[in-house]
Amino acid sequence: MLKFLKGVVAGSGSGLKDLPYNIGEPYASAWGSWTHHRGSSKDDGSSVSIFSLSGSNAQDGHLAAGRNGVKRLRTVRHPNILSFLHSTEVEADGSGSKHVIYIVTEPVMPLSEKIKELGLEGAQRDEYYAWGLHQISKAVSFLNNDCKLVHGNVCLSSVVVTQTLDWKLHAFDVLSEFEVNSEAGTSAMLQFEWLIGTQYKPMELLKSDWQTIRKSPPWAIDSWGLGCLIYELFSGLKLAKTEDLRNIASIPKSLLPDYQRLLSSTPSRRLNPAKLIDNSEYFHNKLVETIQFMEILNLKDSVEKDSFFRKLPNLAEQLPRPIVLRKLLPLLSSSLEFGSAAAPALTALLKMGSWLPADEFSAKILPTIVKLFASNDRAIRVGLLQHLDQFGESLSAQIVDEQVFPHVATGFSDSSAFLRELTLKSMLILAPKLSQRTMSGSLLKYLSKLQVDEEPAIRTNTTILLGNIASHLNEGTRKRVLINAFTVRALRDTFSPARAAGVMALTATCSYYDMTEIAARILPSIVVLIIDPDSDVRTKALQAIDQFLQISKQYHEKMNSGDSHEASAAGATLITGNASLLGWAMSSLTLKGKPSEHAPVASMNSETPVAPATSDASSAKFTQNAGGVDYTDHPPAPPSPTSTDGWGEVDHGALREDREESDKEGWDDVDPLEELEPALPTSAAISAAQKRPVINAKPPAASSARPKPRAAPTSSALEEDDDPWAAVAAPPKPAVRSAEDDPWASIAVPAPRTKTKPLTSGARASAPAAAAATTSAAVDDGDPWAAIAAPPPTTRAKPLALGRGRAKAAPTAKLGAQRIDRSSSSGL
């Protein structure tokens, strides 16, 4: 029992008390007497590497060298030297007969096993070997030239590879200072040189010629070791004897001269590792140059960065794929996250990220992309929106709603029309991931402003977007928003493709409307467009009318069958094929200016007609017409409410902002039964008649109500007449109307108050007055207002002048004279 308790306290393996790491399976190879284990942290589970060395007693020579290696690894720091984390020495069995040293480092793998795992061949293998040798040469140069230290045993087994495929030097058991004037300077080498295999020892070390070693440069021994590493690397064999180094068949020709200088028999002539990096042609390849540029990116200017990142996507395809994904991609991601990379680097990041599995992409790339949405760099934001389709599906709904959308939404009000359009189009991917609160409280407010944007392409695509995301709105929001957005705004836009988009959006969302809405609000709005100046709008309007009439017929058949409740509830759901997405109608705006200032915007001509009632095909698909549409020659369409920034009531195309309802989306206060603006020919004739001069004398009470030309009925007229068909119905015959329901009574010339003698008989009448009276009598029969003027007053009501209590007869002659003078002058 006591022995068991001691084992638990002292422990070994994963149960060590003093080691906060779990020891896993060992690798097949390691340097010297060490064993290389996989491992993990007990705190967070992160991966580590654990090296263990056992000795029979505390004075074991291997343990003494191991303690030297632990001390050196702890104190020497360099990017290409293995990173030290933790170390401990314990008694394995508690009896003191066996001691074990543990070193915990960053997670690495033996180079020999990593080479087999990668399986690189040809030029890609040489490029990767060149990068690895470049890193080991820098580490050896740092030890020899900067620290005046000698490693003593550089070989294939003393090199390990990190998770980012970087090569790192370790095995510091024989590492010692190099001091020319002190014999004690090589004490560690003297003590532990027996640990080095004879095949790796240069001739002077093999003969223990310490006098020659002290006279040699500090890199002499390690340059020989670099030559041994190069041989083992390219031959694929472990060095068995020194004579095998003469076999140069596998050594690349560009590296051969330097390889021979590293293995010079004269220590003073051996090549300095620092010069090996600079002089060798072998190290100048695409992979090495690309990684070196990325590592010193902060020292490059903006022109160099821009040129490099524009070439990187194509260059990455030519580099070894594992190196790109494990080395270049993390470098690129961190440089973008911390602002040292230019905007074109985003294209390279997404292209390289697409080569990762989905789970790795979400873990390694998405966090960086989400942080980039908060960037103030407009070029970065444009790049993210342009490539949103490549990573948008990988974003979770919570991340989109809480972290992405608040930053993307700033683009809705950006001064750049190009960025506003990209932001709008991005909602096609992001909107399905938004919560109903965000969609109703924020997104619809932004879309309400974009539907009155100064750019016609943005207004058109806003309508298309609303049609596409309608299925993601709740029923109450759809009832409040869709019809008002499509009929009151889109169908009245001055831009013909915007009107066509409104028609197609209504068709694509027909399943969300009941028969009351179709009959009272949608069909009356679409019917007017069959006389639209644009042929494409007329065509789409007729197609939409056909589809809605089919819905009406099915509703009628349901009603006749007696199932009125089901017919009323089903509404437009009887028609299928309206659930597919609408395509973007307009071409993208340019960054250099508005399209309206440079070239006509693309037409909305559609190559795909509306799907029939029983078809499962796409209900609406807009395509871009190569030729522009010159909408400046068309007669003015209904004015678009583009004069304000928020939603308000729409009166004949003029938007009145309702500031009291600013907390709503903007569609709530739009009157769906407003009178449409385009006037029919009959109304145009009446308007022309109003512009003709009126010569008849007026009583004093009506002098201030002189009829003026009118282009359209006013808002007050709409309030008095709620008939939604008033704007498109033919005017009634005046002969059958009474005085009470005559719509022109308020503007017609009042009848004479009494049959008094003519104005020309007055005492103050002049010659021009007499002439005017004669002219009035002559044209009385052809008066254009005679047919629509109010009838003479009856006994049921007082005359208009007396009822209003205006001036008396004395001023009548004066006012009449002034009117006759103006008429006479205009007649002349």
From TrEMBL:
Region Disordered, annotated ranges: 594-650, 685-828
Gene Ontology molecular function: any one: protein kinase activity
The protein's name: Protein kinase domain-containing protein
Biased composition (Polar residues): 615-626
Matches recorded under InterPro entries: ARM-like (IPR011989), ARM-type_fold (IPR016024), CIK-Related_Protein (IPR051177), HEAT (IPR000357), HEAT_type_2 (IPR021133), Kinase-like_dom_sf (IPR011009), Prot_kinase_dom (IPR000719)
HEAT repeat start-end pairs: 365-403, 522-560
Domain Protein kinase as annotated: residue spans: 2-283
Keywords associated with the record: Repeat
Pfam families attached to this UniProt entry: HEAT (PF02985)
Compositional bias segments (type: Low complexity): 697-717, 760-801
Top-level taxonomy: Eukaryota, Viridiplantae, Streptophyta, Embryophyta, Tracheophyta
